[in-house]
Design goal:
It is a single chain. With 167 residues, the protein is mainly beta. 12% of the residues lie in helices and 35% in strands. The longest helix is centred in the middle third of the chain and has 14 residues.
């Protein structure tokens, strides 16, 4: 991932068609419609790249008028995990490196994209970008590791509750 601009997305298969994705679950921090703190990122697949649109408000504020760096990292993490939905791969974040380039202003429509760039055994390498129009706000380089459904069930998920990720 040293040369991110040359990254090519890996195929995501055909288990989940192009178009809008459902939320992971109703209380998901990144996309859940029932979570009052969620920025409600609306994801859709376009080929082998995931695109999400959302707007942040005062609930996500750091310094006045701009988003907190933690919500930026959360949006990149959410997009990184969501790109695995078409593969039905239950996986968890083991590393997320975020490079911040520009402040994210509140009340603006933002776009987050992600692509799976490599897979080595259980490790999945994902590149994500958060933008405001043509301005890159931040990039993320994530490593996820594939886990079994029992990982999520151990912490309270019921069997089939996370079917969007194969768990």
């Amino acid at each position: 991932m040293e040369n991110d601009q040359d990254a090519v997305p890996m195929p995501l298969g055909d288990l989940l068609a192009e178009g809008p994705f459902p939320p992971h679950h109703s209380h998901c921090y990144g996309c859940g419609p029932s979570n009052p703190a969620s920025p409600r990122i609306a994801f859709e697949r376009r080929g082998d790249v995931l695109h999400g649109i959302f707007t942040m408000d005062e609930r996500h504020q750091g310094a006045p008028g701009v988003a907190h760096g933690g919500i930026i990292a959360a949006a990149l993490d959410e997009a990184s995990g969501t790109v695995l939905m078409p593969l039905r791969l239950p996986a968890v974040t083991v590393k997320l490196d975020v490079s911040y380039q520009s402040p994210a202003r509140l009340h603006r429509e933002l776009t987050v994209t992600s692509m799976l760039t490599a897979r080595k055994g259980r490790k999945l390498y994902i590149l994500s970008t958060l933008s405001d129009g043509d301005t890159v706000i931040a990039t993320g380089r994530a490593i996820f590791v594939e886990v079994g459904p029992e990982h999520f069930q151990r912490y309270g998920a019921t069997p089939g509750e996370l079917s969007s990720v194969g768990a």
